Amino acid sequence: MNQTRPEKFTRKDKAYLAKRKQLAENIGISNLWSIADHFGLYSGVQTIGTRLAVYEILKECLHVPGHLVEFGSWKGANLLFIAKVLELLQPNTHKHLFSFDSFEGLQTFSQKDGNSKHLKGEYKGDEEVLKAMIDFFEFDEWIHLIKGNALETIPTFEKENPHVMFSFAYLDFDLYEPTKVALDFVGKRLSPGGIIAFDEALMNTWPGEGEAMIEFLAGQGAGAYQVKNIFFSRQPTAYLIKL
Q1: Residue 13 phi/psi, 5° resolution?
Q2: Looking at domain 44-242, what is its CATH homologous superfamily?
Q3: 200 closest CA partner among 225, 166, 229
Q4: Helix/strand/coil for 145
Q5: Which of 51, 57, 101 shows the shortest CA–CA distance to 80?
């Protein structure tokens, strides 16, 4: 007698569907999954392009030793995307993912940031929702949120973690001063073959991020990094490969 066997992932999928229904209720978005599951339907071309670009860049440094870090995570969309790609492509890796964000929006403006001071407080993420999503996807053991002013948290992290190296860094601070501090930090700890990606460098709207990148490259000497971009996406605007 033939018996109908359940699909391979039936038990796992059933538990997942029940768990995510509860999450939607907990964070107060009843239609959360009806939108999220149809990402390709609702998202614009640029959003999809950015995600594909990050995927392509990550693939270039999977073989490079070192952890991953994002500077400026806002609501965590890119952070969790990076985590999920890593989970798919390197499920047995020991790599961790660090996130530096104030969760207070843009704060540290300087003259090199042009006419952007009116955006103070913009891009403020929701720390509790982000933590809920990290827990939901069971990334809590290896995604680490480092909350506070990056001008203070980065030097503290560097002092407390002298052993940490990186294979990938995503710069999305927008502003000159925190970007410069982040580059000074990660530049010393990036493994050969590692990548630094910039979300807004070279954009007129965010001159500070671009100036910080140019100063960083000038200080490294000729031939230290290869500068590239993803041809099909506006963002990230550029990325550096350490040679």
Answers
A1: -65, -40
A2: Vaccinia Virus protein VP39 (3.40.50.150)
A3: 229
A4: strand
A5: 51
Q: What is the pTM for the complete model shown?
A: 0.94
Q: What is the DSSP letter of 148?
A: S
Q: How confident is the model at residue 116 (pLDDT cuts 50, 70, 90)?
A: confident
Question: If you average pLDDT over residues 168-192, what whole number do you get?
Answer: 98
The token pair at 196 is 């630094």
- In tens, the pLDDT along 155-177 reads 999 999 999 999 999 999 999 99
Q: Is the dihedral of CA 22, 28, 29, 31 positive or negative?
A: positive
The DSSP bridge partners found for residue 147 are 101
Least confident of 26-35, 57-66, 192-201: 26-35
Residue 234 DSSP label: S
Tell me the C-alpha distance between 20 and 27, whole Å: 11
Please name the residue that has the structure tokens 């959360």.
32
Reported as a single tens digit per residue, the pLDDT across 192-208 is: 999 999 999 999 999 99
What string of DSSP letters covers 48-101? Answer: HHHHHHHHHHHHHTTTS-SEEEEE--TTSHHHHHHHHHHHHH-TT----EEEEE
User: For residue 27, what are the CA distances in angstroms to 15, 43, 208?
Assistant: 19, 21, 35
Contacting residues for 161 by C-beta, under 8 A, at least 6 apart = none
The pLDDT of residue 1 is 53
